[in-house]
Design goal:
Elements: E1 10-13, E2 16-19, H1 32-35, E3 41-46, H2 53-56, E4 81-88, H3 94-100, H4 117-125, E5 134-137, E6 145-146, E7 149-150, E8 159-161, E9 164-165, H5 172-180, H6 195-198, H7 200-207, H8 212-236, H9 262-278, E10 284-288, H10 307-311, H11 317-342, E11 355-360, E12 376-379, E13 390-399, H12 400-410
Parallel strand pairs: 3-10, 3-11, 4-13, 5-10
Antiparallel strand pairs: 1-2, 4-12, 6-7, 8-9, 11-12
Length: 428
């Protein structure tokens, strides 16, 4: 085939710009960086309030370790995930500081911090994509004070400067528009016309000149994008109920565009993260499963009480059981994300193979605000630089900044130190 297109080609239509997945027709042209293969991506999935340690800790190390009760949902993707232990959040105490230090590994001083891992990566490689990074979440920002600090400091894990926090976008449609609609179409945010439809004519032109294999990839990709659009519409505009209760309580209308069901909401944000990476719209992402001082309830999975309250369980069995149920649910959602990434082919390797996903909490145990031996998972292989599918026990007391530095290096950023790091961790 003589006709080829750039890896950065986009489908364009009125008010839309849609990046493409990796196609065979892109494989042999462009700059030297394009010839090197699929790019590496970094994502952080943050979960608040810690875990119940006896239900998290695996007892064996290496590849033959047994999944603990909280980690059992990883069974189908166990070979793609590394369980990390022995790593401390040495720079933090309490929910607020532990959240703010999760990607900085440094001490917050008078409301000032250091640039977080995700933003340092974005500032280094972000010019190669339309968006340097995306910050996603599911829970609105909270106000008030706790532990001598504004709770607002736990709204995010992303710091682009010592004084600038990046708040996550929790509205799926707004996040989608930001990623896939042209900048001048913000005023059309309520317009439900499909981005695919806007770029249809350009897609037809491309479709007539590519191979059958590329057509298949493009069809799969379009189906994936449209599926997310339909799910957003369904979540925000549910079908009429078949029965209406005779007594209607007064309802306070929530912020526009937020799905009512937590599992629907979180999966939508995960699917948007996948699309952002698949289209190379960005290579850096954070996803806040919830606010770092989250009081969300989980009655939909049979748990009584809010997450923050049950994290202070005082070793009472009914609370530790509920605490464990919530943690398992979060790990189950992460397993979904890992599996989705593993199913996307990028020319002999998967999107997961070319990604590095950090999952965890800034606390080990909410009861006592324990910050030693954090509950951490690392999924993906970062282009072959990480040996997945094992429990890696680091020396006790390893600073989390050492993990940050090791991940920076696997993103091909030649750093020798990151904030409070004292060395690196052998992830290979």
């Amino acid at each position: 085939m003589n006709w080829q297109i750039s890896r950065r080609s986009m489908l364009r239509g009125t008010g839309a710009a849609l990046a493409l997945p990796l196609l065979d027709v892109m494989s042999q042209i462009g700059h030297a960086k394009e010839l090197a293969g699929p790019p590496k991506r970094f994502a952080c999935v943050f979960t608040p309030n810690g875990v119940y340690p006896p239900a998290w800790n695996p007892t064996e190390t290496g590849t033959n370790y047994k999944l603990s009760p909280i980690l059992e949902p990883l069974a189908d993707v166990k070979g793609e995930v590394t369980v990390l232990s022995g790593i401390d959040n040495t720079a933090a105490k309490g929910h607020v500081r532990a959240t703010s230090a999760f990607l900085t590994g440094s001490v917050m001083n008078n409301g000032k911090h250091t640039v977080s891992l995700d933003q340092l990566i974005a500032q280094t490689i972000g010019s190669q994509t339309r968006l340097p990074s995306i910050e996603l979440g599911t829970e609105p920002p909270r106000q008030g004070g706790s532990e001598g600090l504004p709770i607002a400091f736990a709204n995010t894990v992303s710091w682009s400067s010592p004084t600038t926090r990046l708040s996550p976008e929790i509205n799926p449609r707004v996040a989608f528009d930001r990623m896939f609609r042209a900048a001048d179409s913000k005023r059309q945010a309520e317009d439900t016309q499909s981005v695919i439809d806007l770029a249809l004519e350009d897609a037809k032109r491309l479709n007539s000149r590519i191979s059958q294999a590329d057509r298949h990839k493009l069809d799969e990709y379009f189906t994936s994008v449209r599926s997310v659009e339909k799910r957003i519409a369904a979540a925000l505009e549910p079908k009429a109920r078949s029965w209406t209760p005779p007594n209607q309580p007064k309802l306070d209308r929530p912020a526009p565009g937020i799905p009512k069901e937590r599992n629907v909401h979180l999966k939508l944000m995960m699917d948007l993260l996948v699309l952002a990476f698949q289209t190379d719209t960005t290579r850096v992402a954070t996803l806040m499963n919830a606010h770092g001082f989250s009081r969300q309830n989980f009655t939909f999975i049979g748990v009584k009480g809010d997450h923050h309250t049950i994290s202070h369980h005082k070793n009472q069995k009914n609370w530790t059981d509920d605490y464990t149920t919530v943690s398992r649910w979060y790990v189950e959602q992460f397993a979904y994300l890992v599996k989705r990434l593993s199913q996307i082919d990028e020319g002999g390797t998967s999107l997961l193979d070319n990604s590095m996903l950090l999952y965890g909490s800034g606390l080990k145990d909410g009861n006592g605000h324990v910050t030693k031996d954090l509950p951490l998972l690392l999924a993906g292989r970062a282009g072959g630089s990480i040996a997945a599918g094992r429990h890696l026990a680091c020396p006790k007391g390893t600073p989390i900044a050492n993990l940050h530095l090791s991940m920076l290096q696997r993103m091909d950023i030649p750093a020798e130190k990151f904030n409070m790091s004292t060395g690196t961790i052998d992830l290979g």
